[in-house]
Amino acid sequence: MAEASIYEIHDPRFRQLIVTSAGLDELYSDCRWAEGPVWFNDANQLLWSDIPNQRILRWTPENGVSVYRQPSNFANGHTRDRQGRLVSCEHGMRRVVRTEIDGSVTVLADRFEDKRLNSPNDVVVKSDGTIWFTDPTYGILSDYEGYRADPEQPTRNVYRLDPETGALSAMVTDFIQPNGLAFSPDEKTLYVADSAASHDDKLPRHIRAFDVADGKRLANGRVFCLIDKGIPDGVRTDMNGNLWSSAGDGVHCFDPTGKLIGKVLVPQTVANLTFGGPRRNRLFITATRSLYSLYVTATGSQMP
Ligand code: MG
User: What contacts 94, CB < 8 A, 6 or more positions away?
Assistant: First the structure.
């Protein structure tokens, strides 16, 4: 019964997305700042970042936790491309990289208009293979999650990369600190968090939505929702188009109109989450020092 207290039901529809008897499983508790969870169904494994400890960790149901890569160049967000290859943001090298099937690492983007990127934070791949990522300054603010440096870019952008041509386009340039991002299941909407309140309480703590026109232009940017505890960092959508966001007190779930319908309360500040497991109905939550998992009835929209 104690587990029931981890849910806040703000709308009856949230009950359809959760298993009220399911509780949080703490799978690991020795990170400094856990981020960037990505599920590999073919390998039955989760990878995630422990940014200050310079490592990418791996969890499998059979063998628990091991080190996947160290040093990690202060890797943060991860995703997979259409071929299943790992795509990662690195604070330390200020770039987005792809890990090939043979384990070699290919640099996908490290400069825009001849200047170094700030510190790529989070990344998603669209069904057409294009790679969309955010570039706030968190990885160059101090030596804790990267290497302190002055930004070379005048703005903190949301980028679209065409890996076929290498063309890198700034899609949105007016964020203060763009962070997590996710497409709706039909890819007609892109959600991007602005976590600027992390360093100034008066700055935004909201998620913006954009219409995706012709699959590659963004229009009609608007504030989709506010986070009422902490800040939004990583976000994911489920198959019904609900948006699941990290927050200071756990994971917040918003319907496609931006209404808060429920929360999963987590004991530590949540930085990111993803849907995984063979049925994509298991939330993996990176929360400060720990990795948690939680079975839900919602199904993640993210491929593969
Ligand atoms: Mg992030």
Answer: 110, 116, 117, 118, 119, 120, 139, 140, 146
Global pTM reads 0.97
Q: State in Å: Cα 166 to ligand 1 middle.
A: 24
> Each residue of 3-19: pLDDT tens digit?
448 999 999 999 999 99
Buried b or exposed e, range 116-145, using 16+ CB within 10 angstroms: bbbbbbbbbbbeeebbbbbbbbbbbbeeeb
Query: How many Å apart are CA 294 and CA 25, to the nearest integer?
Result: 6
Q: What is the Cα–Cα distance from 15 to 10, expressed in whole angstroms?
A: 9
* Backbone angles phi and psi of 97, in degrees to 5: -130, 160
Q: How far is the CA of 134 from the centre of ligand 1 (A)?
A: 9
pLDDT digits (tens, 9 = 90+) for 241-257: 999 999 999 999 999 99
Tens of pLDDT along 214-239?
989 999 999 999 999 999 999 999 99
| Ligand 1 geometric centre to CA of 42 (Å) | 25
Does 304 score more than 80 pLDDT?
A: no
Pick the closest to residue 271 from 96, 76, 134 (CA basis): 76
Distance 120 CA to ligand 1 centre (A): 9
Q: What's the 34 CA to ligand 1 centre distance in angstroms?
A: 10
Token digits for 71? 């040093």
158 Cα–ligand 1 center, Å: 13
How far away, in angstroms, is 304 Cα from ligand 1 center?
A: 20
Query: Cα of 193 to ligand 1 centre, how many Å?
Result: 9
Q: Residue 231 C-alpha to ligand 1 middle, in angstroms?
A: 10
Could you give the 3-state DSSP secondary structure of residue 44?
coil
Q: How far is the CA of 2 from the centre of ligand 1 (A)?
A: 30
pLDDT at position 252: 98
What's the CA-to-centroid distance between 167 and ligand 1, angstroms? 23
